[in-house]
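Q: what does this look like with nickel (II) ion bound?
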Amino acid sequence: MNILIRTAALALSLLLAACGGGAGNSAAEGPLAGASIGGPFTLTDQDGKRVSDTAFAGKYRLVYFGYTYCPDVCPVDLQKLMAGLRVLEKSDPAVAARIQPLFISIDPDRDTPAVLKSYVAAFHPRLIGLTGTPAEIAAVAKSFGVYYHKQQQDGAAEYLVDHSRATYLFGPDGKPIALIPEDGTPAEIAAELKRWAGG
Ligand code: NI
């Protein structure tokens, strides 16, 4: 019952939350078991190296979509998620070692590998940042059920990107397992990670 309530709450937060405010969210239709979320991808990491999903075979993947220029939600979420991973690294290092955190940019125009490199390093030494061409990012966002939309005024250099907020945990086989509550305390996040990846 608790899981159902939490799932419903997370689905609701998916509907409501977005960086940059505004529009809807195409990821709300079916997180967790049975959801057709995820799939193959090849993107570019923070070192400029091409990386495919197959590089993470055998590892749990904690996947968060966002962008480095996000003024509020993304950095707060990443801080909490990585704090949760750190808690797990202390309490259950073997479990934590099986989890690969991934930050996938939905702002490929600005999130170059160099920009990602300093950004991800600020949150966790094992956090991998991934970017790509606009077409590659569009494809990976679609397969992961992530909505994003650039909010750019005519002539303005700066812009926000409205995007859905979700933290997915995928299994060693690449299939989606659960949403991780990015707004939880580090202890709560660590407990959720252990619940799914600790078996
Ligand atoms: Ni954001």
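The chain has a mean pLDDT of 86. The beta strands are 18-19, 42-45, 50-52, 60-66, 99-105, 128-131, 148-151, 160-164, 167-170, 176-179.
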